[in-house]
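Recall the central idea of this unit: under ordinary conditions, the amino acid sequence of a chain determines the structure it adopts. In this exercise we apply that idea directly, starting from the sequence alone.
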Amino acid sequence: MKRSMLGVAVVAGALMAVMPALAHHSFSAEYDSKKPVTLRGTVTKVDWMNPHVYFYIDVTDEKGDVTNWGLEMGPPNGLERAGWTKNTIQIGTEVIVEGTLAKDGSKQANARSVTVADTGKKLGAASSEYTNNK
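Accordingly, the structure predicted from this sequence is:
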């Protein structure tokens, strides 16, 4: 009985150690560093959670068509060290995002920096860009 409980504990511990690695992904697996993008739009949703913060914006193209884009940023604790809070951008905030397009052609990008349009405040958004610029 003790031996089977020990086996269960070892397997459970191993799974718990691997889970964060499975949830995380490599930048180059999803995004094309040769495809930079600049998007201007209005925030529709913010998901402030590990392992990465995501937010979504409605972008209007030159024809007047609106498309919702998903934007990935770094982890919450890294963003907080760079000056972000959960309230830095809220639904309805207009932002300008510099980032990198997804490889699969979807309306998704990795945000490198985010500028709040009405204040001009610019913050790094990717783990490689944690700088606080104004």
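The domain at 27-133 is CATH 2.40.50.140 (OB fold (Dihydrolipoamide Acetyltransferase, E2P)).
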